[in-house]
Amino acid sequence: MLVCALAAGCSEPASETAPESGPASETPTGATSSTSPSPLRTPEPADPDQPTSWGPTVGELERAGRLVAEMSTRELAGQVIVGRYDGTDPAAPAAMVRDLHLAGVSVASSNVADEAQVRATTAAVSQAHAADGRDWPAVIGVDEEGGVVSHLGGVATEFPPFAAAGAAVAGGRAGEQVVTEAARATSLELRDLGFTWVFAPVADVTIGSADPTIGSRSPSGDPALAARAVGAAVEGYEQGGLVSTTKHFPGHGGVTADSHLRLPVLRSSLPQLRGRDLRPFEAAVEAGAPAIMMAHLDVRAMQAGTPSSQAPKVYDYLRDELGFEGVTITDSLGMGAALSEDFPAIRALRAGADLLLMPVDTATTHQLVVDAVESGDVPRARVVEAATRVVALQLWQQRVAADVRVPADVVERAERAAAELAAAGS
């Protein structure tokens, strides 16, 4: 059993800079959420080498529980935040990770100058994470979906939009293998640059021209093809030793507003969601997805009036109905839809988020989490549960990356895989 028993891409407009509401010492009132954590399930009997459904072994999960149990409140709060930062100086994200004990950072296009600078940034963050006494890798993530959302333009290989994956799998098993190899190749290239996470694949089923946000980022408007493409991609990322992040649950492709700007309403009934939007996420879970990103949507069939990233019933559906046991991460908390409610980070954490992605002000959000835990507004056990999952997943990434070496010709392999995906999807 788990030692603590738990007893333990998101690309956004640069103009969005509004701070989270309230001073750092405040805590939200009236937030609708569960106050007790859901259990981290482990197989019985608990063989330490037995893998979980999302990657880490039972032993890694137990070790993560022991590591998290020793954390101070400030360390615990940092371990559930992936920060944002300004500029291209590698010292800036490194200082944040060290001083705030962050799980890691997200590297956006505004943080990228050239290949040497990217490598210096990821190395500085890794070193700062280790200097903080943590012997597991930092979460160093990037939106690198291919197509229009590629934050490493000019640094990493240019892959076609993920719509090419949906078209490729229409050709059968050979097309699925092309998608898997593309994900594996980009995993290895990103790891070579120092990344441990990618905020992909996109699992949203697009409705076509009425969809203003996802479009060609979606694998397909056909849920069956989208499901096959997502499952194939998840397998490839896993083979490459990179943490993938299937997004944006429960499906952003069916709304007609942009969540970067305001809260979109998803009006589909639950049977409609099951038949369409949820199918690629089910495929991701079946493929062993390690992390799923929660969208900022008003999902009327699950919890009306609340952004899904802050809605306990949406997290409950993902875990109880789809059987997902891995890390849940919010979409960027700097987006307009997330800011439709006060204290989005605290509400998300209470609702069931394990990682808080890119809050507007990382330091303020860190203090808010510290205050919420110390006041009891967010039960410490909830944050322990979240941090345990995150650390366990990073232990998995560390192990798999050690076993799967980056080849010397990684760039050539990535370029070849991108060309093959483009050809298969044409």
From TrEMBL:
Pfam families in the record: Glyco_hydro_3 (PF00933)
Catalytic activity: Hydrolysis of terminal non-reducing N-acetyl-D-hexosamine residues in N-acetyl-beta-D-hexosaminides
Alphabetical GO biological process terms: carbohydrate metabolic process; peptidoglycan turnover
EC main group: hydrolase
Low complexity bias (residue ranges): 23-43
Alphabetical UniProt keywords: Glycosidase, Hydrolase
Signal peptide: none
Molecular function in Gene Ontology: beta-N-acetylhexosaminidase activity
Domain of life where this protein originates: Bacteria
Its EC number(s): 3.2.1.52
Name of the protein described by the UniProt record: beta-N-acetylhexosaminidase
Source species of the chain: Nocardioides euryhalodurans
